[in-house]
Design brief:
- This protein has eleven helices and no strands.
- It is elongated.
- It starts with a helix and ends with a helix.
């Protein structure tokens, strides 16, 4: 394929994703049709279908982009030179903040998140594994510097993720906000509890 044609195709695809995201937030997922997205872009619905076979496929693309952004933020923290304990705290607080700011600035986005999680579960499982790997790297660094006890980093990373599900799962974050919980304070308390458990025994 001609590089210029591919570049134009990628640009059109990205414009469709961006426009759909805006409309889903403005109108709601259920009330937004492919025809609405096409009209906003001043193109035919058939042209949108050239890039995405369905509205669900557009949602999956939005989901993939959000997962990638979240992973990039997590790995930026994991690879920083801060102490391991500080990185672990920043990683989870950052993931929670990302979901709060990106996915729940408007209530209409809730339905889109629900659909994406139901239909893109394979992508989400892969995303969780990449986040677990970032946590494992932080744990290994902490063991090497003596910040953390001689734990098994792989298994411990998985346990930590289970413990933090309420602060990393978009729908659980939404429920916590709806219930009026101070999620940041609760997350910090859990992090400190876990850091005490990870600290070397005196």
């Amino acid at each position: 394929m001609n590089p210029q044609v591919k570049l134009k195709s990628d640009d059109t695809r990205e414009r469709i994703i961006e426009t759909a995201d805006v409309l889903f937030r403005r109108l709601g997922y259920a009330k937004t049709a492919v025809a609405d997205i096409a009209a906003e872009l001043r193109m035919s619905p058939a042209n949108v279908y050239r890039f995405f076979p369905s509205k669900l496929a557009i949602v999956e693309a939005i989901c993939q982009r959000c997962l990638l952004e979240c992973e990039e933020k997590a790995w930026t923290v994991a690879r920083s030179r801060a102490p391991a304990a500080e990185r672990l705290e920043q990683l989870f607080l950052g993931i929670m903040a990302y979901h709060k700011e990106t996915l729940f600035e408007e209530e209409r986005i809730h339905d889109m998140v629900l659909v994406a999680m139901e239909q893109s579960w394979g992508a989400i499982v892969a995303h969780k594994e990449r986040i677990r790997t970032a946590i494992e790297m932080i744990l290994r660094d902490g063991i090497e510097t003596g910040e953390f006890d001689q734990i098994e980093p792989g298994k411990t990373a998985a346990i930590i993720m289970y413990a933090f599900v309420s602060f990393c799962h978009p729908l659980l974050i939404a429920q916590g906000l709806k219930d009026g919980l101070d999620l940041e304070a609760d997350a910090r308390a859990l992090i400190r509890f876990q850091l005490r458990a990870l600290s070397p025994r005196k």
